């Protein structure tokens, strides 16, 4: 298990990016959250196995229809086991 702190930049607000991330996180059975940031980027924190997180990152790079993902930063950390599911935060 590992934890990934992800920052997605580009046209990612107003295109359903958070719902898109939630749908695939639940499908891949990873836990964490996604939220819009004031600077126009999206923050995602997930915990799961390497294979799950790597696939999730590929999905985020594509983004939903209408999104234009320009850059993704990922920092890996030790898991904290603080999540019970994947949620959208305001």
Question: What does this protein look like?
Answer:
It is built from 2 helices and 5 strands. The chain is α+β, with helices and mostly antiparallel strands and 90 residues long. Strands 4-1-3-2-5 form a 5-stranded mixed β-sheet, covered by helices on one side. The protein has helices at residues 17-28, 50-62; strands at residues 2-11, 31-36, 42-48, 68-77, 86-89. The chain has a single domain (2-80), classed as 2-Layer Sandwich (Alpha-Beta Plaits). The N and C termini lie far apart (26 Å). The model has no long low-confidence stretch (mean pLDDT 97).
Record the SSE blueprint:
Blueprint: E1 2-11, H1 17-28, E2 31-36, E3 42-48, H2 50-62, E4 68-77, E5 86-89
Parallel strand pairs: 2-5
Antiparallel strand pairs: 1-3, 1-4, 2-3
Helix pairs in contact: 1-2
What features would you highlight for this structure?
90 residues, alpha+beta, five-stranded mixed beta sheet, globular, Alpha-Beta Plaits, 2 helices, 41% strand
The residue fraction in helices comes out at 25-40%
What is the tally of helical segments?
A: 2
Label the overall shape.
globular
Largest sheet: 5 strands, mixed
Q: What is the name of the CATH class?
A: Alpha Beta
- CATH topology group: Alpha-Beta Plaits
Instruction: Give the uncertain stretches in residue-range form.
Output: none
Report the portion of residues in β strands. Answer: 35-45%
Compute the gyration radius: what is it?
12 Å
């Amino acid at each position: 298990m590992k934890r990934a702190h992800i920052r997605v930049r580009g046209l990612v607000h107003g295109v359903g990016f958070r719902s898109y991330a939630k749908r695939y996180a639940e499908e891949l059975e990873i836990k964490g959250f996604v939220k819009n940031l004031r600077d126009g980027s999206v923050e995602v924190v997930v915990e799961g196995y390497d294979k799950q997180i790597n696939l999730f990152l590929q999905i985020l790079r594509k983004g939903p229809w209408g999104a234009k993902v320009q850059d993704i930063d990922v920092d890996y950390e030790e898991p904290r086991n603080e999540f019970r599911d994947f949620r959208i935060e305001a």
